[in-house]
From TrEMBL:
A Pfam family this chain is assigned to: HTH_3
Gene source species: Atopostipes suicloacalis DSM 15692
Record flagged with keyword Nucleotide-binding: no
Residue spans crossing the bilayer: 87-105
Protein name: DNA-binding transcriptional regulator, XRE-family HTH domain
């Protein structure tokens, strides 16, 4: 016996009309009729309500109706897929909201000045040019900041040794040490830029780079090597940075 006939039989045993049953289940009478003639099937939650109403195990209602079992199985799988999709979309939305909130918080923090008047935004998206070096070996040096990257361009006199590096200390690791101090010759790109302010000093770190800059004035800073830089540009666009990176890759 298919489920439509069983539903009709159980309704009649309970002395209920289609209209009365429809009111109990909060559906239309036509829906009850459609179930009983086998045109459509009730949803799983409705079947559970019917089994409770008639005090009949759900298995008894579904027994011998393979089409109904297939239909319910397909609906359950579809419901599970929809549920999983909703969970994934919810997690993605949370990540997006979290990222947006963190970015907004980071922008706010970067624009907060300490008691010395320093804030990370003083360096972000700016360009600096060397105006003084404690040695004549370094003839040119520039700092290019955007919000996430730093590019340093150094030029040394021919055959010169980097400043503050003792010739007796030259070893194989010196190149890495120079890079970490921002002394590497040529143009070097550092990612994952982070800027903090402590009193009158900017602490600049990035992947493979660490340096402290003391602010001497609104437009002049000095690193721990004694090199002083003058701010020549207060805005440094992503297009400008991409142009420099293209030069690096040439």
């Amino acid at each position: 016996m298919d489920i439509g006939k069983k539903l009709k039989e159980k309704r009649q045993e309970a002395n209920l009309t289609q209209k009365e049953l429809a009111e109990i289940l909060h559906v239309s009478r036509q829906t009850i009729s459609s179930w009983e003639v086998g045109r459509t099937y009730p949803d799983l939650d409705v079947l559970v309500a019917i089994s409770e109403l008639y005090d009949t195990p759900l298995d008894d209602l579904l027994k011998e109706d393979s089409e109904m079992v297939k239909n319910i199985t397909a609906k359950v799988k579809k419901s599970e897929r929809r549920k999983m999709t909703n969970i994934v979309l919810g997690l993605l939305l949370l990540v997006l909201i979290g990222t947006s909130l963190f970015s907004a918080w980071k922008r706010h923090q970067n624009n907060q000045a300490n008691t010395y008047g320093l804030k990370p935004n003083d360096l972000i998206e700016s360009t600096w040019e060397m105006v003084y070096a404690p040695t004549e070996n370094l003839v040119q040096s520039n700092l290019f900041f955007d919000s996430k990257n730093l590019i340093i361009r150094n030029k040394y006199a021919p055959g010169a040794i980097k400043p503050n590096i003792d010739v007796n200390d030259l070893v194989e690791s010196s190149s890495e040490e120079w890079s970490e101090m921002g002394l590497e010759e040529g143009m070097v790109h550092y990612e994952d830029l982070n800027i903090e302010v402590v009193e009158d000093t900017y602490i600049v770190s990035a992947h493979g780079y660490q340096q402290r800059f003391e602010r001497l004035s609104d437009s002049v800073i000095r690193d721990t090597n004694g090199t002083e830089y003058f701010k020549v540009q207060s805005s440094f666009s992503q297009k400008d940075f991409n142009t420099l990176k293209e030069q690096l890759n040439e």
